[in-house]
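Chapter review. Work through the record for Sugar-phosphatase before attempting the end-of-chapter questions.
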Amino acid sequence: MTSLVEKYDLVIFDLDGVLYLIDRPIPGAVDALARLRDQGMAVRFATNNASRRAAEVAALLRGMGIAATPQEVLTSAGAAAALLAQRLEPGAPVLVLGAPALRGEVTDVGLRPVDSADDNPRAVVQGFGPDLGWKQLAEACVAIRAGAWWVATNTDRTLPTLRGPLPGNGSLVALLAHALEREPDVVVGKPEPGLFATAAAQASARRALVVGDRLDTDIAGAHRAGMDSLLVLTGVSTAVEAAAASGALRPTYVSADLGGLFTAPAVPAL
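Structure tokens for Sugar-phosphatase:
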């Protein structure tokens, strides 16, 4: 019988909550990716996490036993930097909120990262960073009120950890939005379709399947990109939430884990 994955020519994986939690592979993930590689399936990795660069993500995956190259990894940090480079002149100052990875991406596209509103940044780019605090948010608040373009890498309310869901970049974006009484000018990552569309274009795929653990980002993003989706219950969203989901939040399929890729027939969303 035909397995679910045989219907597609590309599988796009979210990372946190799908393949690993922080730095530990989720049971079955290594075997599932090896099986896909053995079958010759094209894969891409698309993450809203802006705290690692593509090469770092690929190295992390390889360290877990999952074959991956930097070219197969798409991050919201890289996408945000590319967008800034399209809009701003070379060397323009950008106030960066987040991890060193985001700062590095901004530097690589020819822009100048700054830390203070006094540097008159043309834009503020906000991504997750575990050390991000009030001082940096205050500088961003001043810069945005002065007219800086505000770009958020993603708006995930939480991120999955071994201790359960903890505040993600979306929670910090919401804090700043509350203070400013406005939303970001642009949100780059999922549920926006850009990461998925870029992955499909890179692989010349005609029929891609998105695998994720969040209804509000992975599944909604797949819907916006016109792609089918598989929700795995190893991360944030639960079976109860999946059963109650409708519209753009309703996954095409639901599975307990990545074993659902190889079931015949696949279990559809309830």
